Protein backbone atom coordinates (compact mmCIF):
# COMPACT_ATOMS: atom_id res chain seq x y z
CA UNK A 1 0.00 0.00 0.00
CA UNK A 2 1.14 3.51 -0.73
CA UNK A 3 2.34 5.54 2.25
CA UNK A 4 0.19 8.49 3.25
CA UNK A 5 1.26 11.65 5.06
CA UNK A 6 -1.10 13.70 7.23
CA UNK A 7 -0.62 16.63 9.60
CA UNK A 8 -0.34 15.52 13.21
CA UNK A 9 -3.11 17.79 14.45
CA UNK A 10 -5.63 20.38 13.31
CA UNK A 11 -8.15 22.67 14.97
CA UNK A 12 -11.53 23.77 13.69
CA UNK A 13 -14.28 26.04 15.04
CA UNK A 14 -17.68 24.47 15.55
CA UNK A 15 -19.97 25.12 12.58
CA UNK A 16 -17.11 25.77 10.19
CA UNK A 17 -15.85 23.40 7.51
CA UNK A 18 -12.96 21.14 8.49
CA UNK A 19 -10.57 20.42 5.64
CA UNK A 20 -8.18 17.55 6.35
CA UNK A 21 -5.35 17.08 3.83
CA UNK A 22 -3.59 13.86 2.92
CA UNK A 23 -0.58 13.29 0.71
CA UNK A 24 -0.24 9.98 -1.14
CA UNK A 25 2.27 10.78 -3.86
CA UNK A 26 3.21 7.13 -4.53
CA UNK A 27 -0.34 5.88 -4.92
CA UNK A 28 -0.80 3.33 -7.69
CA UNK A 29 -3.60 3.29 -10.22
CA UNK A 30 -5.63 0.58 -8.51
CA UNK A 31 -5.39 1.96 -4.98
CA UNK A 32 -8.39 3.65 -3.43
CA UNK A 33 -8.19 6.44 -0.87
CA UNK A 34 -10.07 5.54 2.30
CA UNK A 35 -10.89 7.81 5.24
CA UNK A 36 -11.73 6.53 8.70
CA UNK A 37 -12.03 8.26 12.03
CA UNK A 38 -11.64 6.93 15.53
CA UNK A 39 -13.07 8.42 18.66
CA UNK A 40 -11.23 7.45 21.81
CA UNK A 41 -11.64 3.79 22.76
CA UNK A 42 -14.00 3.00 19.88
CA UNK A 43 -13.48 1.09 16.63
CA UNK A 44 -12.58 3.04 13.48
CA UNK A 45 -15.63 4.47 11.74
CA UNK A 46 -15.77 4.38 7.95
CA UNK A 47 -16.28 7.85 6.44
CA UNK A 48 -15.77 7.70 2.70
CA UNK A 49 -13.55 6.32 -0.03
CA UNK A 50 -12.80 7.04 -3.67
CA UNK A 51 -10.61 6.13 -6.59
CA UNK A 52 -10.27 9.24 -8.76
CA UNK A 53 -13.58 11.07 -8.79
CA UNK A 54 -14.73 13.34 -6.01
CA UNK A 55 -17.17 11.63 -3.68
CA UNK A 56 -19.82 12.90 -1.28
CA UNK A 57 -22.00 11.15 1.25
CA UNK A 58 -24.01 12.16 4.29
CA UNK A 59 -20.90 12.50 6.42
CA UNK A 60 -18.30 14.17 4.25
CA UNK A 61 -16.86 15.01 0.85
CA UNK A 62 -13.65 13.64 -0.60
CA UNK A 63 -11.72 15.71 -3.09
CA UNK A 64 -8.95 13.85 -4.97
CA UNK A 65 -6.54 15.83 -7.12
CA UNK A 66 -6.38 14.99 -10.80
CA UNK A 67 -2.93 13.42 -10.46
CA UNK A 68 -4.24 11.47 -7.41
CA UNK A 69 -1.19 12.42 -5.36
CA UNK A 70 -3.22 14.11 -2.66
CA UNK A 71 -6.74 14.39 -1.32
CA UNK A 72 -8.81 16.44 1.12
CA UNK A 73 -11.55 15.25 3.41
CA UNK A 74 -14.15 17.94 4.03
CA UNK A 75 -16.55 17.92 6.98
CA UNK A 76 -18.89 20.72 5.88
CA UNK A 77 -20.17 21.83 9.30
CA UNK A 78 -17.98 20.47 12.07
CA UNK A 79 -19.51 19.70 15.45
CA UNK A 80 -17.91 18.89 18.78
CA UNK A 81 -18.68 15.22 18.11
CA UNK A 82 -16.36 15.31 15.09
CA UNK A 83 -13.36 15.56 17.41
CA UNK A 84 -11.42 12.39 16.65
CA UNK A 85 -8.33 10.92 14.99
CA UNK A 86 -8.77 10.88 11.22
CA UNK A 87 -6.91 8.29 9.15
CA UNK A 88 -6.22 8.55 5.42
CA UNK A 89 -5.32 5.18 3.87
CA UNK A 90 -4.38 4.14 0.35
CA UNK A 91 -5.33 0.55 -0.31
CA UNK A 92 -5.72 -1.82 -3.23
CA UNK A 93 -9.41 -2.53 -2.93
CA UNK A 94 -9.53 -5.52 -5.22
CA UNK A 95 -6.08 -7.01 -5.46
CA UNK A 96 -4.07 -9.47 -3.42
CA UNK A 97 -3.96 -7.09 -0.49
CA UNK A 98 -7.73 -6.60 -0.52
CA UNK A 99 -9.12 -5.73 2.86
CA UNK A 100 -5.73 -4.96 4.38
CA UNK A 101 -5.56 -1.37 5.57
CA UNK A 102 -2.24 0.16 6.61
CA UNK A 103 -2.92 2.82 9.22
CA UNK A 104 -0.51 5.68 9.91
CA UNK A 105 -0.64 8.03 12.88
CA UNK A 106 -3.56 10.03 11.49
CA UNK A 107 -4.62 13.62 12.18
CA UNK A 108 -6.04 14.58 15.56
CA UNK A 109 -8.89 16.96 14.74
CA UNK A 110 -10.11 19.07 17.63
CA UNK A 111 -13.34 21.01 17.13
CA UNK A 112 -13.66 24.02 19.45
CA UNK A 113 -16.91 25.68 20.59
CA UNK B 1 -28.92 -4.78 9.95
CA UNK B 2 -26.30 -5.48 12.60
CA UNK B 3 -22.84 -4.23 11.90
CA UNK B 4 -19.64 -6.00 12.93
CA UNK B 5 -20.01 -7.42 16.43
CA UNK B 6 -17.19 -8.50 18.71
CA UNK B 7 -17.02 -10.26 22.04
CA UNK B 8 -16.02 -9.91 24.76
CA UNK B 9 -15.70 -6.14 25.02
CA UNK B 10 -13.16 -6.26 27.84
CA UNK B 11 -11.12 -9.00 29.43
CA UNK B 12 -8.13 -9.45 31.71
CA UNK B 13 -5.73 -12.36 31.35
CA UNK B 14 -2.57 -13.44 33.10
CA UNK B 15 0.78 -13.65 31.33
CA UNK B 16 1.22 -17.09 29.76
CA UNK B 17 -2.49 -17.77 29.38
CA UNK B 18 -4.40 -18.14 26.14
CA UNK B 19 -7.29 -15.97 24.88
CA UNK B 20 -9.99 -16.33 22.23
CA UNK B 21 -11.77 -13.32 20.75
CA UNK B 22 -14.83 -13.59 18.55
CA UNK B 23 -16.23 -11.63 15.63
CA UNK B 24 -19.42 -11.74 13.60
CA UNK B 25 -19.13 -9.87 10.32
CA UNK B 26 -21.68 -7.50 8.87
CA UNK B 27 -24.50 -9.26 7.09
CA UNK B 28 -23.49 -10.14 3.54
CA UNK B 29 -19.75 -9.94 4.23
CA UNK B 30 -17.51 -12.97 3.75
CA UNK B 31 -14.05 -11.59 4.56
CA UNK B 32 -12.83 -10.96 8.09
CA UNK B 33 -9.63 -9.17 9.05
CA UNK B 34 -8.13 -8.74 12.51
CA UNK B 35 -6.10 -5.78 13.77
CA UNK B 36 -4.20 -4.99 16.95
CA UNK B 37 -4.14 -1.43 18.25
CA UNK B 38 -1.74 -0.58 21.04
CA UNK B 39 -2.40 2.54 23.10
CA UNK B 40 -1.55 5.68 21.14
CA UNK B 41 -0.89 3.82 17.90
CA UNK B 42 -2.87 3.15 14.73
CA UNK B 43 -4.31 -0.34 14.16
CA UNK B 44 -1.87 -2.95 12.84
CA UNK B 45 -3.05 -5.73 10.49
CA UNK B 46 -2.74 -9.23 11.97
CA UNK B 47 -4.37 -11.48 9.35
CA UNK B 48 -7.37 -11.99 7.13
CA UNK B 49 -9.74 -14.91 6.57
CA UNK B 50 -11.76 -15.72 3.49
CA UNK B 51 -13.51 -19.01 2.67
CA UNK B 52 -12.27 -20.39 6.01
CA UNK B 53 -8.63 -19.94 4.98
CA UNK B 54 -6.01 -17.44 6.11
CA UNK B 55 -5.44 -15.34 3.01
CA UNK B 56 -3.05 -12.61 4.19
CA UNK B 57 -0.91 -12.20 7.27
CA UNK B 58 0.87 -9.25 8.80
CA UNK B 59 4.05 -9.27 10.83
CA UNK B 60 2.79 -11.16 13.88
CA UNK B 61 4.22 -14.32 15.47
CA UNK B 62 2.65 -17.75 15.26
CA UNK B 63 1.21 -17.26 18.75
CA UNK B 64 -1.52 -15.39 16.91
CA UNK B 65 -3.83 -17.73 15.06
CA UNK B 66 -7.36 -17.63 13.78
CA UNK B 67 -10.26 -19.46 12.36
CA UNK B 68 -13.23 -18.70 10.17
CA UNK B 69 -16.44 -20.71 10.34
CA UNK B 70 -18.86 -21.58 7.51
CA UNK B 71 -21.16 -18.75 8.63
CA UNK B 72 -18.20 -16.34 8.10
CA UNK B 73 -17.77 -15.58 11.80
CA UNK B 74 -14.20 -15.67 13.04
CA UNK B 75 -12.05 -16.20 16.10
CA UNK B 76 -8.67 -14.78 17.00
CA UNK B 77 -6.55 -16.89 19.35
CA UNK B 78 -3.45 -15.69 21.13
CA UNK B 79 -1.30 -18.21 23.01
CA UNK B 80 1.35 -17.67 25.67
CA UNK B 81 0.20 -14.12 26.36
CA UNK B 82 2.82 -11.44 26.95
CA UNK B 83 2.36 -8.13 28.70
CA UNK B 84 2.92 -6.48 25.29
CA UNK B 85 -0.18 -8.18 23.90
CA UNK B 86 -2.31 -5.76 25.90
CA UNK B 87 -4.22 -3.82 23.24
CA UNK B 88 -7.53 -3.20 21.52
CA UNK B 89 -8.24 -6.03 19.07
CA UNK B 90 -10.38 -4.99 16.15
CA UNK B 91 -12.30 -7.07 13.66
CA UNK B 92 -13.13 -5.72 10.22
CA UNK B 93 -15.45 -7.22 7.64
CA UNK B 94 -15.86 -6.71 3.92
CA UNK B 95 -16.95 -8.38 0.72
CA UNK B 96 -15.68 -7.85 -2.79
CA UNK B 97 -19.04 -8.83 -4.20
CA UNK B 98 -20.85 -6.08 -2.31
CA UNK B 99 -18.44 -3.21 -2.81
CA UNK B 100 -15.11 -2.51 -1.20
CA UNK B 101 -16.16 -0.75 1.97
CA UNK B 102 -14.51 -2.19 5.07
CA UNK B 103 -16.34 -1.89 8.39
CA UNK B 104 -14.89 -2.27 11.87
CA UNK B 105 -16.36 -3.53 15.09
CA UNK B 106 -15.97 -1.73 18.42
CA UNK B 107 -13.14 -4.03 19.45
CA UNK B 108 -12.14 -6.19 22.39
CA UNK B 109 -9.92 -4.63 25.04
CA UNK B 110 -7.37 -7.16 26.28
CA UNK B 111 -5.30 -6.46 29.37
CA UNK B 112 -2.51 -8.90 30.22
CA UNK B 113 -1.26 -8.72 33.81
Architecture overview:
- Helix content of chain A is 0%, strand content 46%.
- Chain A has strands at 9-13, 18-23, 31-38, 45-50, 55-56, 61-64, 70-75, 84-92, 107-112.
- Chain A is globular.
- Chain B is mainly beta and 113 residues long.
- In chain B, 0% of the residues lie in helices and 50% in strands.
- Chain B has no helices and eleven strands.
- The chains are: A mainly beta (113), B mainly beta (113).
- The interface between A and B is medium-sized, with 24 and 26 residues.
Share in β-strands of chain B: over 45%
Determine the fraction of residues in helical runs of chain B and give it as a percent range.
under 10%
Report the strand count of chain B: 11
Number of helices of chain A: 0
Instruction: Catalogue the unreliable spans of chain B.
Output: none
Mean pLDDT of chain A comes to: 92
Q: What proportion of the residues of chain A form beta strands (DSSP E)?
A: over 45%
The succession of helices and strands of chain A, N to C, reads: EEEEEEEEE
Helix content of chain A: under 10%
Strand count of chain A:
9
Largest interface: A-B, 24 and 26 residues
**Span between termini of chain A:** 37 Å
Shape of chain A: globular
Determine the structural class of chain A based on helices, strands and strand pairing: mainly beta
Amino-to-carboxy terminus distance of chain B: 37 Å
SSE class of chain B? mainly beta
Q: Nearest-angstrom radius of gyration of chain A?
A: 13 Å
Tags for this model:
heterodimer, A: 113 residues, mainly beta, five-stranded mixed sheet, 0% helix, B: 113 residues, seven-stranded mixed sheet, globular
